[in-house]
User: Fold this.
Amino acid sequence: MHRVKVRVVEDALDANNTIASANRADFDREGVTVLNLMSAPGAGKTTLLVKALPGLEGVRPGVLEGDVAGSLDADRLADVHIPVTQLNTDQGFGGECHLDANMVRSALPSLPLADLDLLVIENVGNLVCPAEFRVGEDARVMVSSVTEGEDKPLKYPLMFRACELVIINKIDLLEHVDFDLEKFLYHLEGVHPGVPHLLVSARTGEGLEAVRDYLVGLASRAGAPA
Amino acid sequence: MHELSVASAVLDTALRHAEDRRVLVVSLRIGHLRQVIPDSLAFYFEIVSRDTPAEGARLEQVIVPARLRCGGCEDEWDMEGTPEFRCPRCAVSEVEVIAGNELEVDSIEVEEESECIGSK
Assistant:
């Protein structure tokens, strides 16, 4: 027996990225734009979708709901007549804390892609792992709520740098919590210079129109057939 | 906390290149910006590699500092501590990441049957 050194020089996530590209090609073929929506647990992703998706002008939305277990979020979306497919990650080691490209691939056959223009993949609530794993999306957006504190961009720069838009949710609570919006925006700009943000309360509906405008614009991006 | 996911990805990459040979060492280059905690990664790697040809393999981790370049004054610096992508000299925030995003399996060492001298 002897030792041999093998040169690898490969990104550890290459295998995931290859599957993500295959997913993306399938979505493109069906003319579906895909949004990977990420946040900490409880930031309000599902409430935002329940309020923003119904009645989107000229866009047929659907949701792929990622959760460690259960279908509570999917049920809420089904209640407002949004096509939703549940993807549970609890087959993994104690329940995977994120969706990866392969999990999304496994869900493709159960997605009604031909009937959709926009697929929102609601990732598992987590500010770390989802940022590492592409799933075949066109855009990544995160929801950050004012109850989480203004220091979060500094603590989770990987996530805040991974997204093209930050939706700041629960602004109806601003007067009740010690959240310094100006400081948050300063940290956000320091971590991800130039990233746009929207101020929203999914609960009261404030700012939702801008989210809907963004989603309509996203759905018409290149990749979809003319 | 994402070290478990990273450990699994590293293991899969190493095993693919090992082609069924026993893996003794896995060398990684990890950028500072990936927020990987080396001890935590080693801990999870030991767990996920159990009952695989990489069980007991040593994980070598080289941390690559986050190196940034200012788009304004073209100054270069290593980012340490608080993650700030602003130029400390001219405060311009059009900074380019030159290094620090790596999450790379650089090489592996595997065990191979020695060829018997004189055999055909």
